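Database export, one record per block. Field names are fixed; values are copied verbatim from the stored entry.
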Amino acid sequence: MASTVGQVIKCRAAVAWEAGKPLVIEEVEVAPPQAMEVRMKILYTSLCHTDVYFWEAKGQTPVFPRIFGHEAGGIVESVGEGVTELAPGDHVLPIFTGECKECPHCKSEESNMCDLLRINTDRGVMIHDGKSRFSIKGKPVYHFLGTSTFCEYTVVHVGCVAKINPLAPLDKVCVISCGVSTGYGAAVNVAKPPKGSSVAVFGLGAVGLAAAEGARASGASRIIGVDVNPSTFEAAKKFGCTEFVNPLEHEKPVQEVIAGMTNGGVDRSVECTGNVNAMISAFECVHDGWGVAVLVGVPHKEAEFKTHPLNFLNERTLKGTFYGNYKPRSDIPSVVEKYMNKELELEKFITHSLPFSEINKAFDYMLKGESLRCIIHMDG
């Protein structure tokens, strides 16, 4: 890679030219990293529902042309001025949020909401100079979540890069960079179910299944999966779910159904759909006196959460979490080690695999609800 340092790299990228239209494989130019930036070669990336959501651009500001992708694994090609903890050849995961290590959030043991580098879905440029590092024939192509991993090379702020064990297989651990950590961390770091406890997980996509896995790892004995799509139930057993509830099959609100199953409510709940009614149900289904509900899903911008204040006064707790409360640089390497030590299984999250040239099929799989994670091999 030494010959490319300081040079513009020409490579393939899957470019979204407009909302909802198939991505087009184009030759793009990727500029060298500037101060506090890292240029990396992406070896594997996967499709997350967040990519699809912003590609459809139905409920947010459209920013096009854009290179999507934020769940990936790669190798550092070169580093910009001021980068001291990464070097060419390091194995890394790019992360859609960051850790500057200087702000009050980064210095807090409780927060991972970095002031400088927290997720920004509208920004399509690098924060150093307000410019894109991608271009086609001299015209900028915009970044997504500061990662843009649907490109053979990408440029990322150093604070959004987790250096990991070089022996970890990037085609597996790439899923740790978003969905698995978000769900798993929501359970183990935020809900913290006691051994022998009951947990309800709302939404059995990849994030919800990771939350179920986290509940099992914590020692929960009853894990109730809640989803309106019963085809998810069989697969969810592999992730620790012991029982299932389809809200559409009941006349009573699902929180009442769960309370009836659990002698007054579950000890913990984790909500992974973003549907505000599911959020309310997840809160109201926890037991009074000690129940804790954790919100993970991102709601519609106009959504309002309504519940009676007595639900709080009766000693139920409602928490929110972002990226499983993991700090990207400090904590994610240890999640990779959980996989390496066989404490966390990732293979069962990976349902499909495709060459980069067929990336649009990954969108089809997700839109049809057929995949949890589809790994895209960048050399294909």
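Remark 1: Residues 9-177+346-377 form a domain with the Quinone Oxidoreductase; Chain A, domain 1 fold (CATH 3.90.180.10).
Remark 2: The first strand starts at residue 9 and ends at 15.
End of record.
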